[in-house]
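Service request form, structural biology core

Requester: graduate student, group of Dr. S.
Request type: structure prediction, single chain
Budget code: on file
Notes: please return the result as C-alpha cells.

Sequence provided:
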Amino acid sequence: MFSGKKVIVLGGAKSGISAAQVLVRLGAEVTLTDITPLHQMPEPERIALQDMNIRLVTGSHPTTLLSGADLIVKNPGISPEIEFLQTARELGIPWISELELAWLISKAEFVAITGTNGKTTTTALTGEILARGSRPVAVGGNIGIPLTGISFGKGPEWLLVVETSSFQLEDCYKLHPRVAIFTNLTPDHLDRHKSMENYLAAKLRLIQNQDSDDYVVVNRDDPILARQSFGRGQKIWYSLKPGQGDCYIEDGWFCWRGERLAPAGDLSLPGEHNLQNALAAIAAAKALRLPAEEIRQGLRGFAGVEHRLEYVGEVRGIKFYNDSKATNPESTSTALHSFAGKVLLLAGGYDKGAEFVELVPLFLEKVKHLFTFGDTGEKIRREAIAGGFMEVSPTLDLADAFNQAVSIASPGDIVLLSPACASWDQYANFEERGKHFKALIKSWREKL
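Core staff response, request fulfilled:
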C-alpha cells in the first residue's frame, strides 16, 4: 500500500516519529518536516529523527516539498489552514492523520473512544477490563502512546483500545471501529472548529464506516448526544439513572440489562463522572461478550490515570491533586464536584476561546481561593470577580501560583491543579504541565 510512495509526515513529536518509522518499514520514501528547528527539539526526538532513513526538513514547511508527493500524514495539532496544506489541497495531494494510518496498517479490531471529557480514563479503564479477557489487548492513541507504534502487524485476534480526538478524526476516512464510545459533548476547541456543529461533525466521523455488526456506546445523560442517531451501529446506551439505558447504576450496583455485574464500590476513583466512565467501559466489554467476573476484576484493578485527578500526596497535612488534563471548563467543573469541601484551585493556560462564567457559581461553592496564571489568567480573574467571587489572586505562572497557594494553605486543605485550559501557552502538552506541578510539590517537600 505504501511501498514506493512518496509520503510527507507533517509534524514531528511522538506521533510523527512513530508514523515515519512505520512508513519506512513499509517501503515508503519519507520526508518529515517540522516547524521547530532540529537543535531546539527535545533530545529524544532529535536523536530518533537523526537515526532514521528519511529526508528531514526542520524550521519551516516549504511548499517545494510537495512536488511529487503522494500523501501527507498530518500531526493533529497542525491547523488545516496553513499555507503548506492549502497548497497541497490545490495540488490534489490528500492528507490523513496518524490515527487513520494506524488503522490502515493493522488487521486488529478497534475499540475507539471519543468525547469532550473522560476519554483518557474511559480508554485506560476499558483496556484494563478487556485485558482480563482471552484476547490480547493494546492501548494507545491520543492517550499519549502513538497508535502506529502498536497497531503495526497486529492480527485480527487483537483488540486495540484507542483514545481519539476531534483533531485526529477530522482527517480519518476509512477508520472502522468495532466498538465506538461517546462519553459526552460540550463546547471545546472552537478556536479550531469554529462552531459546535463542526466539532460534532468531527466527532461523528468515528462511526461513519460502522455497519449493523458494530456497536456504538453512548452516554444517554448527555443532552447533545441523546439527540443524535449515530448511524448504522447497534446502539448501547449508558446512564447513571436506572431504566435509562442498557448499562446503568441501581442500588449501588453496576447493572447490565437487569443483571447486577459489580458493586459500584469496586471502582476506587472518586466522582460521579468516573461512574459514567466505568459504565461506558462496562458496556463496551459486554458488547464484546466479556463475562461479569472479568469485568469485576478489571474494575478492582484500575488505579486511575496520571494527570487526571491524580492524587500526588500529602505534605504537612495538605493534600495535592494533579488534574492537568482538565483542558476545558467542563473538566474543571467535574473535578470540583469530586471534592466534598473547598479547595485551593490553580487555573489558567492557553486560550481556546472558552468562557469561564459558568464556573463562577462553583468557585463560590467549592473554592477557598483561586490562583490564576497563563494567557487566560486575567480573563478568569475578571469573570470570577464579576460573578461575585473575590478570593482570587493573579500570578505570574504555575510556579508562582503554587508558591502562593502553599503559603496560605493549612493542614486539611486541598491544592488542586485543574487549569480549565490547554497548556500550549507555556508547555508542550498537559503532561509536561502536570509533571512540572508534581516537581514543584517534590521540591517544596524537600525544602521543609
